[in-house]
Write a structure and sequence with these properties.
This protein has four domains: about 120 residues, conserved putative lor/sdh protein from methanococcus maripaludis s2 fold, CATH 2.40.420.20; about 80 residues, Elongation Factor Tu (Ef-tu), domain 3, CATH 2.40.30; about 60 residues, RNA polymerase II/Efflux pump adaptor protein, barrel-sandwich hybrid domain (OB fold (Dihydrolipoamide Acetyltransferase, E2P)); about 80 residues, Helix Hairpins (Orthogonal Bundle). Helix content is about 25%, strand content about 40%. The chain has six helices and 25 strands. The strands form five sheets. Strands 1, 2, 4, 20, 21, 22, 23 and 24 form an eight-stranded antiparallel beta sheet that branches. Strands 6-15-18-17-16-19 form a six-stranded antiparallel β-barrel. Strand 16 and strand 17 form a beta hairpin. The chain starts with a helix and ends with a helix.
Length: about 375
């Protein structure tokens, strides 16, 4: 036995008046002077309206649907970058400019298709009049009509190719009306958010679909929690989640029923809506899961107030002439506090220091 505990037991046995039976409750009798000599202090229990888990590790991520990777649809040379990592951008804001010879070829093909379609339209209008007057056969008219429809479809296809290459409707209209070619593309932001990553530099040549920038909207954020598999039956959607260090809060939105075979943890996802601006994607944090409005009574006490005897846990409740051991159930345990569940009224005071001496007196006089 530890020497300090032995000394505490001897001191307690020499100072205490013994155990008094009060019905079925055993009282460890102590006078105020004895309590002072043993360094015993008390604190009122605090009612807890929620059940809080131990601190659990988690990672902050950007929710699905709030992140975009920006790339160019055409190969070319990056001749200008207008934003960098960490900057906030608006939807439609210019991000970069690319010089692309391939774009010139697409515009040329579009103008050729446009000219062919206009000629086909004139031919169709002429043959429609001739067919109406009975000058040409129906077969010739239908052939001309089919050719016009094919060229209209080709023109639509090449217009779509320009749009996919990054040309806007205004630039396409200038090409149609004035034959004004564009030798470059301006890449615009698809969403409002923050530039999370810059993956290219000015002067770099890129191919189609090569990632250039990553943009994310950072409110709200997701917290990916790694919880012990034992929590599978107690964690549910809608439960409150706190990140105490940053005063951030949110709710569980998914409990993924798949266990990591390496560390036997389950995956819980929470959406952080309060103080999300204090967090960053990729950050590792510690979080608590709280069940609000739990049935029964729970009380918060300092960790030192709970003592062990065998497999059971006890607190020492102060009474008029000393202390009485009260068996409790430990519901949740943190670094400095414990949530206990028992039939306490919430008005009791429990010993928070000197519990070793009280336990020594209790055990030394024949208790459990």
């Amino acid at each position: 036995m530890n020497k300090s505990i032995q000394i505490a037991m001897l001191a307690a046995l020499s100072l205490c008046s013994g155990i008094v039976d009060a019905g079925e409750t055993k009282v460890i009798a102590m006078t105020p002077k004895q309590q002072q000599a043993l360094g015993i202090t008390t604190l009122a229990v605090n009612a807890s309206s929620e059940l809080t888990s131990n601190r659990l590790p988690g990672e902050i991520t950007v929710p699905v649907g709030q992140e975009r990777v920006v790339s160019a649809a055409q190969s070319g040379l990056i001749d200008a970058l207008f934003v960098a990592a960490g900057q906030s951008v608006k939807k439609g804001q210019a991000l970069a400019h690319i010089s692309s010879p391939e774009l010139v070829a697409l515009q040329r093909d579009y103008l050729q298709a446009l000219t062919q379609k206009r000629l086909a339209k004139n031919t169709l209008d002429r043959d429609a009049e001739l067919y109406k007057d009975g000058i040409i056969a129906e077969r010739r008219y239908l052939t001309t009509q089919s050719g016009h429809e094919e060229l209209a479809s080709l023109l639509s296809q090449r217009r779509q190719a320009l749009r996919l290459a990054g040309m806007g409707d205004a630039a396409i209209a200038r090409l149609e009306n004035r034959g004004e070619y564009s030798s470059g593309l301006t890449i615009s932001a698809p969403i409002e958010g923050q530039v999370l990553e810059q993956m290219v530099t000015v002067g770099q040549r890129i191919d189609p679909a090569v990632p250039m920038l990553r943009i994310g909207r950072l409110t709200p954020l997701w917290l990916e929690i790694h919880a012990p598999v034992e929590a599978l039956g107690t964690v549910a959607k809608g439960m409150l989640v706190r990140i105490p260090k940053y005063q951030a809060e949110g709710r569980i939105i998914a409990v993924i029923r798949s266990v990591n075979k390496n560390d036997q943890t389950m995956h819980v996802r929470a959406e952080i809506t309060s103080n999300a601006d204090k967090l960053s994607p990729g950050q590792f944090v510690e979080a608590e899961v709280a069940a609000e409005g739990v049935a029964g009574k729970q009380f918060t006490v300092p960790k030192n107030a709970v003592v062990r005897s065998g497999a059971d846990s006890y607190v020492f409740v102060q009474v008029d002439n000393g202390y009485t051991p009260k068996k409790v159930t430990v519901v949740s345990e943190q670094a400095d506090k414990v949530v206990i569940s028992d039939s306490l009224s919430g008005r009791e005071k429990v010993a928070i220091t000197g519990t070793v001496a009280i336990k020594a007196a209790w055990i030394g006089t024949g208790a459990e």
